[in-house]
Design a protein that fits this description.
Order of helices and strands: HHHHHHHHHHHHHHHH
Number of helices: 16
Distance between the termini: 28 Å
Strand content: under 5%
């Protein structure tokens, strides 16, 4: 594996497409592993029924809110580490890493306690169906107990991303996904001394795997086995660093949390139409995650490369990186969308054998997959802005896409009437799928308009 200095040289002066692919491939593998992590839960719980599948589907938006806050602040770590590394100041890069890590761990403890106590009230507020509610409470509370370790791994992953190291986080993900794959069927259905625990077993398997990832990440950061080395001294929070982290991370955090909250609202909107759409949405969402694997690879590669090139003053190269990453990512996504549309029914049938769920999930996949290439364009542009520390415009674009487009259009098309405008198209749950799909091309167009201004090229360190 290349050293940080060798990766820096590739990022600043190597062949753009080749470097993007080298950086993106480990992220794609890592994303594949993460998706398999979720799919394993869905696959085994699907053997029990739609109610059991609905429990993690209901819990996930809440978990996503907390994770989004952590990832938003971790974005400051990518921007600070990447730009200091691009400027050749490795000492500052390490200082920034320690401050971000410490800040995230403190935040995770607050979220764990607050989330655990508030779980029943949150799920009630989300209009979780009665048969799903008790299972969702159990699932969410167990997973929340692993939150400090999740944040530790998130910090580890984002900080190494700023250094251009995409391989090490991928290797750790192999370990924790393997733990989940092994434990899931054992704890869900029971084996030997382990009783059958159903949804509770799935939650324990998920929490155990995340604790494993966090412990390994902490060990590597504090033992000099990666390009960043932390010490207890580096964890003492300093106001100058906190101001930078908050200035860069707060908009990204707000955008991610607002996105997560929108998914909570979207779930509540789907839940209006009953258990079948909830199960279809839960399975379909995981399938969508699978087909967006390439997007996350190119987005992360672009984030690191654009951040380091802007830090080094290579603005023209940074722009070329974005253009080429967008072209490749969107082409792959449009092709993948076509494949999913063709095989959508067979894909749904892998996870569940209930015909109504298969039919509704197939319709969701068909409609949403038509726009998936535009999501690729939006995500690469958005991540590139975050990599240079321009998180405020990225925040605005993300909130516009999720709240102003996805959630509003979904409600507009699905309901007979929505508040304030007292009008709706009354299309039922299909209107939600249409609204979700339309948010992608409109959001991509808005993000491209900001790209054209060139304001994202300014350094933020």
């Amino acid at each position: 594996m290349k050293s940080a200095e060798e990766r820096r040289e590739d990022i600043l002066s190597g062949p753009i497409i080749k470097t993007i692919l080298v950086l993106a491939l480990p992220v794609m593998v890592s994303a594949s592993l993460h998706i398999s992590f979720n799919i394993v839960d869905t696959f085994w719980l699907g053997r029990l029924g739609a109610t059991e599948v609905g429990a993690p589907t209901a819990a996930w938006p809440v978990i996503f809110v907390f994770l989004s806050a952590g990832m938003g602040l971790a974005t400051a770590g990518v921007a600070l580490v990447a730009q200091h590394m691009g400027a050749g100041d490795r000492k500052k890069a390490n200082e920034a890493a320690g401050q971000v890590f410490s800040f995230l761990i403190i935040l995770s403890l607050i979220f764990t306690i607050g989330g655990f106590l508030g779980t029943p009230y949150i799920l009630r507020w989300m209009q979780t169906p009665e048969d799903i509610y008790p299972l969702a409470v159990t699932y969410l509370r167990i997973v929340l107990l692993s939150m400090p370790f999740v944040f530790a791994y998130t910090a580890f992953r984002f900080l190494l991303k700023g250094m251009g190291d995409m391989i090490t986080p991928m290797l750790i993900k192999v370990v924790f996904v393997s733990v989940n794959v092994v434990l899931d069927p054992i704890l869900i259905f029971g084996w030997s001394v382990f009783p059958a625990m159903g949804v509770t077993g799935a939650a324990i398997a998920t929490a155990a795997s995340r604790v494993t990832a966090g412990v390994v990440g902490i060990y590597l950061l504090f033992n000099g086995r990666v390009d960043i080395r932390l010490s207890m001294k580096s964890l003492r929070l300093k106001m100058d660093w906190i101001r930078q982290i908050v200035r860069i991370g707060a908009p990204a955090t707000f955008a991610r949390v607002m996105t997560a909250m929108a998914f909570v609202m979207l779930f509540a909107l789907v839940a209006i139409f009953g258990e079948t759409p909830v199960a279809a949405y839960g399975i379909g969402r995981r399938v969508i995650h699978v087909i967006t694997i390439a997007v996350w690879g190119f987005a992360d590669a672009s984030m690191s490369m654009v951040g380091q090139n802007v830090g080094a003053g290579n603005k023209k190269r940074a722009e070329e990186v974005i253009k080429k990453a967008v072209l490749v990512a969107s082409s792959i996504m449009f092709a993948t969308g076509v494949i999913v549309i063709i095989f959508r029914t067979g894909i749904m049938s892998v996870f569940i054998d209930e015909i109504p769920v298969i039919k509704e999930g197939s319709r969701y996949l068909a409609i949403y997959s038509m726009s998936i290439g535009f999501f690729g364009i939006f995500r690469v542009l958005d991540s590139s802005y975050r990599g240079t520390g321009h998180t405020m415009p990225a925040m605005g674009l993300e909130i516009f896409r999720i709240w102003g487009l996805r959630l509003f259009l979904s409600a507009l098309f699905a309901l007979p009437s929505i508040p304030l405008i007292n009008f709706g198209f009354d299309m039922g749950v299909m209107g939600i799928w249409v609204g979700m799909a339309l948010s992608n091309p409109i959001g991509a167009a808005a993000s491209y308009m900001y790209f054209r201004t060139g304001k994202w090229k300014r350094r933020t360190i």
